[in-house]
Every structure is written in structure tokens, then in C-alpha cells.
Amino acid sequence: MANFLNVHLLSSLAFANPNRDDAGAPKSAVYGGVERARLSSQALKRAARLGFQERTQAKSIRSALAGDIVAELMSNSGVAVDDNVRSCIDQAIRTLVEDSPKPRKGAPDEDAEDNQSGNTLSWFAQAELESMAVVLKPVIAENTKIDAKKVRKALETSLSQPSVEIAAFGRMFAASPASATDAAVQVSHALSTHSYVLEVDYFTAVDDLREHGAGHIGLSMFTGAVYYRHFCLDRAQLQANLGDRFTSSTDQIGTLIESMLVELPRGKQNSASHHSLPSLVAIIEGARPANCAEAFERPVVAAEDGYVLPSASALGGYIEEMAQFAPTVFEKVWIGGRSKLVETFQEQVPVASEATLPQLVKNVTEWVTEPSR
User: Fold this and answer.
1) Residue 345 domain-assigned?
2) Less Cβ around it within 10 Å: N or C end of the chain?
3) Which residues contact 161 (CB under 8 A, 6 or more apart)?
4) Considering the domain boundaries, does residue 176 fall inside one?
5) Is 237 found in the same domain as 97?
6) What is the model's pLDDT at position 112?
7) Based on the domain organization, do 364 and 276 belong to the same domain?
8) CA angle, 278 as apex, 277 and 283 as ends, to 5°?
9) 25 and 84, same domain (yes or no)
């Protein structure tokens, strides 16, 4: 029984900028000698997290201000929390990511020299934050001068309830490696299957109270592209990360899978409405992770049907070749998407079953819950 699922997706976005660089342009990367449009791995994971939280109401916090939430929880439980205690709580939590954190003065501010040690983001489930409030209560009551080692040891007992998102994407605590969570899901940067063209949109905003002229003039940058996305799910790692809570987390795991299939970064979403569903989804069970971006190392050339159909053909042809070379990596295949693309893919790759989006999510969820080898 294979412990890995490789998920390959083709998504077609028209005139959008979901993930921009420091100049406001769509992110890009050079591959195969040409520049491609890119969606970063980080942006894709955040989109999946947001979609997951909206569907489940499950809450996790990734912030440099986690201490403020714990302080509020402690205050609500009857602990007198003044600025000094609040600073101590923040310092205590940062012992997980910094060896000798300095007390933070005020909120993290990129322009404040004395706050440089308070800008490290930490990621916690709501249940873990609540547990921290309980654990820190007697520690803070004893002494408002933090003993980093003592506090870190106390906090580590609170980190045994990672949410499904944390169990999937993992997290690092630089000063407390034993408390880190190894990722069960690896997510690639999405690249366009072809070279991309940057479009500059000149726009004006009309001032309703002025008879002539524009109230604002500006430029925005967009592009249109067919993106290849890949993520790999390690069943054994996910089961280990969730531990005793794995069985009760099945529904949330299915919701996270669905979010990873359909959610995209939300940059300029109100301007572009890039709510594109994946054109093609190929889910392959195998003995190890396998990214198929090489299928597009030679840029796809647009046909009469555009880029997405030849992209599906290129992906199917690549998987057909690699399945002969590494058969244990390309075993059972589930596929879904536009019928014409599915037909093109199936001409090259034997498919175990064709499925709708809900059926694909159900198949993956059932596969995840099977005992790992």
C-alpha cells in the first residue's frame, strides 16, 4: 500500500493578479528558458487555510501577536493582566522561537528598532492558545520576570493539539525543535505551462461630485495563464501528527482537501473575480512524492483551443512515460475535470476512475483514513 498521494492540477485564469511581487506585478519565474507566471507555495497554502476556516469555523492563529490572545484569555479567566504581565506573556511564548527574547514594547512595528525581536510569526490552534492560558497562569503569578527555560518547558505541554491545518502544513519552532510539526502536505509553486505576457491596465476612478476629469488615475498589472499546480500528501505523517484525534478529524481533513483543490490566492480578487475551478485534477497514488512540472519544461504552444488542452495532453504524455520508468510512483489514478481534457488525458494514462469534484474529495478522504503502511 502506497503512503503518498500526488495531486496534479491545471487551472486557467483569465486576466488576474492573485499573487503579486514587490512592484505589484504578477509573480514570475524562469523555467525552460522562458519566463512563467507564478503563484507562490505560501500564497496557495494560505488560500487553502482561509477556505478551510470559512467552511469549518475552525480557528488557528499565525501571528507575532499570539501573546495578546493568551493575555485576553487569561484576563477573561480572572487574572489581572496589566502591560507588564502582557509583555511577560508575549516574551514567554516567544521562547519557542527565540533563545533569549527581549521584552516587547508595544505592538511589533517594522520601523521600531526596539521591537525587532518581536516580529517572528508563530502558528497555534485555538485549543493550544487556551491551553497556554491555563499553563501560564501559575507561572506568571509566581514572578513577572520570565525564566525562559522554565516557561518553555511549561508551554511545550500545550502543543499537543495541532489543528488539521497545522498537522497538514507543519510548523517550526526554532528554539524548541521537539515541539515542531513536520508537514504532511508539501505544496509546489504553481507555474504557467507556457510563457506569459504582462498586461498593464491604465484605469481611472470617477469622482461623482466633479463634473469633469478623473478623481484618480493609476496603473495595475495583470496576466492570463494556465497554471500547473502540485501538492503531495503523506498519509502516515498526517496520521502521526493528529494522533488520537485523527479519527474524529475525518470531516475536517476532507474539507481541507477540497480547499486545496479549489482555493486560489485572493490578490485583486475584487478587480478580477478569478474564481476559476480547476480544469483538470489528476490524483495519483504512489510510493513517493513526484512533481510533474517537467511536463512543461518545454513551454506549451497555444492551439486553436488555447493552452489548456495541449497542457492536459503534455501532462498525460509525461505521466505515461514516467509510469513506465517508475511504476510504483504512478499506481492508482483518479481524475476529474472538463470532459474534453479528461478524454485527452485518458488516451495516454490508464485511469482507475473518473469522478466529480465531491467524489474526488471523498476518494482522497477515504484513502487518508486507511491504515498507513
Assistant:
1) yes
2) C
3) 125, 127, 128, 131, 245
4) no
5) no
6) 47
7) yes
8) 140
9) no
Summarize the chain as % helix, strand, coil (round to 5): 40, 20, 35
Instruction: Say if residues 97 and 173 touch (Cβ distance below 8 Å).
Output: yes
Burial of 225 (0-12, 13-18, 19+ CB in 10 A): buried
The DSSP bridge pattern shows strands 280-286 and 216-234 to be unpaired
pLDDT tens profile 84-93? 888 888 888 8
pLDDT band at 107 (very low <50, low <70, confident <90, very high): low
Strand partners, 218: 203
- Output the CA torsion sign for 317, 323, 325, 326: positive
Longest dimension (CA), the chain: 74
133 and 11 co-located in one domain: no
The x, y and z cell numbers of residue 155, run together, are: 508551554
Q: Are residues 192 and 308 in the same domain?
A: yes
Q: Quick one: 127 and 32 in the same domain?
A: no
Q: Which domain holds residue 106?
A: 61-162
Do the domain assignments include residue 146? yes
Q: Determine the Cα–Cα distance for residues 29 and 36; give it in Å rounded to an integer.
A: 5
Shared-domain flag, residues 355 and 311:
yes
Angle between helices 66-76 and 83-93 (to 10 degrees): 130
Report whether 320 contacts 346 (CB < 8 A): no
Residue 373 has pLDDT above 70, yes or no: no
Decide if 258 is inside a domain. Answer: yes
DSSP annotation of 26 reads B
Distance CA 328, CA 155 (A): 42
Cell numbers given for 367: 484513502
CB 240 within 8 A of CB 211: no
Torsion on CA atoms 118, 119, 125, 130, rounded to nearest 10: 20
Residues 190, 41 within the same domain: yes
Amino acid identity of residue 358, one-letter, is: P
Q: Is the pLDDT of residue 113 over 70?
A: no
**Pairwise CA distance, residues 322 & 295, whole Å:** 10
Residue type, 42: Q
CA-to-CA distance for 232 and 365, rounded, in angstroms? 14
Residue with cell 503523506: 234
Number of domains in the chain: 2
**267 DSSP 8-state letter:** T
- Enter the C-alpha cell of residue 40: 507562490
Whole-angstrom distance, CA of residue 48 vs CA of residue 241: 19
